[in-house]
Amino acid sequence: MSDRSLLRDLPRLALLTLLGLLILMPYIWMIAASLKPLDEIFRASLSLLPERFYAVQNYGKVFAKVPVWRYLWNGVVVCGGILFFQLLFAVPAGYALAKLRFPGSGIAFGAVMLGLLVPYHVPALPLYVGFSQLGLLNSYTALIAPATISVFAIFLFRQFFKSLPDDLIHAARMDGLGEAEIVWRIVLPNAWPAATAFAIFSVVAHWNDLFWPLIAVNGTQYATPALGVLYFRSDEAGDDFGSLMAAAVLMTAPLVLAFLLAQRRFIEGIATTGLKG
Amino acid sequence: MHGISVEGLSKDFGGTQVLRGVSLHVAAGEFVALVGPSGCGKSTLLRCIAGIEQPDAGSIRIGGREVTRLRPSGRDVAMVFQSYALYPHLTVEENIAVPLAMRRLNAAQRLPFLGTLLPGTRAARDTIMRDVRQAAESLGLGPMLSRRPGQLSGGQRQRVALARAIVRHPAAFLMDEPLSNLDASLRVQTRREIVAIHKAAGVSTVYVTHDQSEALTMADRVAVMQAGEILQIASPTEVYADPQDLRVATFIGSPRINTLAAEAGADGVLRVAGQAVGMRVAGSGAMTLALRPEDMQPAVAGLSAAVEGVEFLGESLLVHLRHASLGTPLVLRLAPEDRDTLPPEGKVALRFPIARALVFDGAGKRVAVHALSPEASLV
Amino acid sequence: MSEAAVALPAPRLSAGEALAGWMLTAPAAIAFVLMLLAPTLATIALAFTDYELGASALSWIGLENFAELLQDRGFGIALRNTILYVAIVAPASVLGGLALALLIEAGTRGRALFRAVFFLPVVSLPVAMAAAWQYLLHPTIGPLNAALRTFGIAGPNWLSSSDTVLISLAAIGVWENIGFNLVLFLAGLTAIPRELYAAAEVDGASRAWDRFRLVTWPLLGPTTLFVVTITMTRAVRVFDSVAVLTQGGPNKASEVLLYAMYEEGFTYFRLGYSAAITLVFLAIVLALVWLQTRVMERRIHYV
Fold it and tell me: How far apart are CA C38 and CA A133, in angstroms?
């Protein structure tokens, strides 16, 4: 199977290359258009390379009209904040559900399993009303708070912690560690595979999310990259595809670059946590 | 005189009584081995002493303190786990330091970064590191202090677990089958090291094992457990030569002790297969005559057992026989040069000194023997 | 062996352990109630009211919202479009993902490269990629129609014609999901023991297709089931591409459930009505999960 000669492998490689190019088509044209002046784009030629190199103008226009750094920074703050609270809440809960016996643990686990069934769109309406009553719409709080509880994270960490040997916990107790210390000093450092997988899943999901930011935020001050592209598209760009594609490239780049640098981790992280796509 | 004192401990796991009112007293500095088949409750007893399990009834005192309701960390005991339970993310040095850091530094001083800035942390950390190095050196772990458990061999991990236990000079050592994950030769070597550590530290030790050779070679006293009870607790020689219960007699000793169905008449004379065997016992009815393999010798006269096979072990011979009329399998241990005493036709009679005969009544309890002659034979 | 590990956990609870358990779950429990449980229950309650944002009062109207849904032409189209969208995206991206996985797994060369290429859409900002698609599918300046023109074909107005808009969105959906499914299938394929293929060959399954039928397909069963349900639940949630590219148009030809819910709730502020749509959406998601467990139960003996 694996020791095929290159010649016999050629049809497979050719087919995969063709399909791969098909998948890459939007990226190729996006980048190509971001380098072209508008009149070349409107000529609709099939040439990928620009006759006049217009990258500086296109990207310059994006940076001039759009607070690119603001959007990216908002994305970092929102994703970082969400991940921080998700771990802060889910790791201890996952540990308690995996290793401690306490009244109510059955109900808590039932709630987790039930929570797994509910898409995050379902509580959106009342959350919107609630944040609007509190005057908290259009803030980092509104963007971060609804995602701070991830029942999926609790479930994932519980499964992972269950596989840690009980004697490790017993040894820590005998050595004099309290339960909270056990969580942060013993259990979490040994849960890096699960934690990185979840972190990647969480950051990808929230960096790319449009639904909730669209509801919770108005205006550029707290806009995430997804909202930023949407605003630029409807307000500034119009039919200026060159700079629109430049904006799209800029907002897509951070995650895609991170992915290209750590492909294996990304793919494993998202595939193992795929349960909650 | 302190040590460990367990009184009337009971524990129930989902309807099965794992411990049935167990009492155990370990003198200060004494090494007691808990030995028994798997499922006998020995690990549960140890875990109750450690505070990992809560007993349903009974009390535990360690170093003169009542600890039954205390958390594990409050009991001043150190435990070596079967799996070693080393912290995989910490180096050898850090693993050994954990119990000291938890006891000598307060919560604020233990904080990462910030803690090191507080007054006193530095000095406390220095003494901790000194103690850690000392414990590590005594176990030959000096060169691997900065490695992680994953980079160590099984024997080295085992030493780290031991070092973590001895470093804080606890009131008691608890060991849960610490050698069962090592290969045979390493096990024999480590056995002696643990005894040496115990001698040097002079700390009361409870050692759980299913391996009787570990129990017999290492312990001051051996407690034989079965079905949630301690059947007998005595010195290794005593549990071997003078067992008070048939279950102790059959559990201790390898090959297993020979047992023969016997009968005591109203006069107390003991008979095997209808033949008197030269002794009177206190009691009557169905009895069991038990004889260690090395306590029997081939006799000249009579044809009571057929030889089924001979195993050469180097320092001794094991002769497998079957009793002619009872059909019971028997094992005989002979010196290699005694091979010639076996008759060529493969049938032998057996003789034994009455003083070595162990007789148990129908309930398995030892009964006293009055010898009618110095020696008897099975015919 | 330690008998504690063998025996059932003791029913006896220590007070300290219980306290620790509560302390450690408390933050998660509070966040769960505030951010998930209470708002979800509120959504369910809202669906039976006529609440509109800014209204000072609301009244219980029972099933009236749902009765209105049945009459609502827009909702009917949204429901039908969503089902149609799922019916295209799920099979295409599942079978496509499986085919790609088999193709990648058939040799050793270029595995990591192709896996990464096909996975790229999963980590790409959907809004930005929607913009790229908009350019690619543009009727006059788009490269796709330009390419068709060189063959003498007049390409349609992909995203603005009610005949092609749903197909176009579904194609984007397949493009978004296929790499994800590919990775799940690859994981399933590597779990199949190599010896089974050798055994199948010895047993006379000499053609690749025979080996696929005999070994791969049955052993991939659980993975396939998982991939099918996860793709369907992902497809039901289609929102980003609609919100960016079509806003449900032209003439509701690309209206889908979540976008209808968003419009009713956050454009027209009819929260009660929007909540009713949300419940329909939730019911579909739950039905898919229920279907998955049913199928799983039936084939559990050979999984």
Answer: 16
Report residue B373 CA to chain centroid gap. Answer: 36
Residue at A214 is within a domain: yes
CATH code of residue B42: 3.40.50.300
DSSP structure string for C79-96: HHHHHHHHHHHHHHHHHH
B76, closest residue in chain A (CA to CA): A174
Is B246 part of any domain?
A: no
| Record: contact B102-A170, CB cut-off 8 A | no
The answer to whether A102 contacts chain C (CB < 8 Å) is: yes
Nearest chain B Cα distance for residue C2, angstroms? 5
Residue A28 lies in domain: 6-64
pLDDT at residue A197, as a whole number: 86
Range of the domain at C144: 68-302
Q: Name the domain count of chain B.
A: 2
- What does the pLDDT profile of chain C (303 residues) look like in tens digits? 333 333 334 444 577 888 889 999 999 999 999 999 999 999 999 999 888 887 777 888 888 889 888 888 889 999 999 999 999 999 999 999 999 999 998 888 888 899 999 999 989 999 999 989 998 998 888 889 888 888 888 888 898 888 899 999 999 999 999 999 998 898 888 888 877 887 777 776 777 787 888 888 888 888 888 899 889 989 999 999 998 888 887 888 889 999 999 999 888 888 989 999 999 999 999 998 888 888 877 764 443
Phi and psi at C84, nearest 5°, equal -60, -45
Of B199, B217, B241, the residue that ends a domain is: B241
> What is the pTM assigned to this prediction?
0.80
pLDDT tens-place string over residues B19-50: 999 999 999 999 999 999 988 999 999 999 99
Strand-by-strand arrangement of the B77-80 sheet: B77-80, B172-176, B204-209, B31-35, B221-226, B229-234
Mutate to test the interface with B, among C1, C2, C6, C8 (most CBs of B within 10 A): C2
- Burial class (CB within 10 angstroms; exposed 0-12, middle 13-18, buried 19+) of B280: middle
With CA atoms as reference, the chain C residue closest to A225 would be C125
ipTM of this complex: 0.86
Are B50 and B34 spatial neighbours (Cβ–Cβ below 8 Å)? no
C6 CB within 8 Å of a chain B CB: yes
Strand-pairing partners, residue B288, are B261, B360
Considering the domain architecture, whether residues B368 and B304 belong to the same structural domain is answered as: yes
Identify the three-state secondary structure at position B169: coil
Closest CA to B136 of B159, B152, B153: B159
Question: Is there a contact between B121 and B115 (Cβ–Cβ < 8 Å)?
Answer: yes
Instruction: Please indicate, yes or no, if residue A1 is contained in any of the structural domains.
Output: no
Minimal C-alpha gap between B364 and chain A (Å): 37
Give the pLDDT confidence score for residue C117 in this predicted structure: 93
Please report, as a single letter, which amino acid is at residue C247.
Q
Across the interface, do A172 and B83 touch by the CB < 8 Å criterion? no
To test the contact with chain A by mutation, choose from B98, B104, B148 the residue with the greatest count of A C-beta atoms within 10 A, namely B98
B63: domain range?
Answer: 4-241
Nearest CA in chain B to C17: B71
d(CA C58, CA A56): 55
Domain boundary among A42, A64, A86: A64
As a dihedral over the C-alpha atoms of residue B196, residue B201, residue B204, residue B205, rounded to 10 degrees, the angle is: -40
Distance (Å, rounded) from C-alpha C32 to C-alpha C92? Answer: 36
A134 interfaces chain C, CB cutoff of 8 Å: no
Q: Do A130 and A12 fall into the same domain?
A: no
| Domain presence at residue C99 | yes
Q: Do C12 and B41 touch (CB under 8 A)?
A: no
Same domain, C40 and C136: no
- Give the SS3 label for residue C195: helix
- DSSP 3-state of B260: strand
